[in-house]
Amino acid sequence: MPLTQTPRAGWRGSRIAHAFPRNLTPWLFLLVPLALLALFTYVPVGTMLYYSLTDWDGLRRNADFVGLENYVEIFTRPELFEVFLVSLYYFGASFVQIALALYFATVLSFKVRFANLFKGILFFPYLVNGVAIGFVFLYFFRPDGVLDTVLALLGGEGLTRQWLGDPAAVNYSLAGVSVWRYTGLNFVLFLGAIQSIPGERYEAAELDGANRWQQFRYIILPGIRPVLGLMFILAVSGALSVFEIPYIMTGGANGSETFVIQTINTRFKFNDFGLASAMAVVLLGIVLLVTWVQRRLVPEERES
């Protein structure tokens, strides 16, 4: 039996091709991803918005509509917002983290011996599970632990303290763990941005006698400006939504409670699902507002 297409079959195929608009083809490819995005992102957000307007405790079958009562409670209870002061420690630490990541990415973007080894070492902490990191640093910060031992060997016995039990030191300790873990992620993003800059610019700068600092200031820094904007947004959103490390290491004790830990406790300890949903909506709104302000202050550059 010949495998060639008959004239009648070809005519039908041509007719179907003409009947199906070509501009619908991209939408067909996007249909499944958009459906998954809506199912796992926008539908849960819509559900959260709905429950934030109810008094549901997570156990009853039905929830009573209470309007904006949960939001009024959030904005009239100062203790719910005071925990945002803890986020300032993480926000400040994120700038240290960004500075370290940018420094190492700049140095390792040039020809350096064992560059790949150093890249792997810097990125490795980000690959480790957050729970494991929490337990590792529990031993690191415990009394007579690794940190106290190192300080004693260096003659700094007077600096030892309850690193996780002292309210004056606990947030600095936890923010330091955050820097250790997330510097690798920032490093990789900076390194990719720096390596995307055409090499001809460096060659032209070297011919003009530019040193490394001048290359960084006039070539690298303008070239990674969009990534810097992204880092700022990630820093703000990360500082506001810190959860994993303080929850594992202190459970929010000794003045280390963050807004997310407070939201989780509201939901699971006090069974107030409606109020916890409203707190999550407020956090989402703050992150979106900061992102909008950042975009207005530092607009994205468009290629002409």
UniProtKB/TrEMBL annotation:
It comes from the Bacteria. Residues 83-294 form the ABC transmembrane type-1 domain. It is a multi-pass membrane protein. Signal peptide: none annotated. It is found in: Cell membrane. InterPro entries: MetI-like (IPR000515), MetI-like_sf (IPR035906). Pfam families: BPD_transp_1. The chain crosses the membrane at residues 27-51, 88-110, 122-141, 179-197, 218-243, 273-293. Keywords: Cell membrane, Membrane, Transmembrane, Transmembrane helix, Transport. GO terms for biological process: transmembrane transport. This is Carbohydrate ABC transporter membrane protein 1 (CUT1 family). It comes from Pseudonocardia cypriaca.
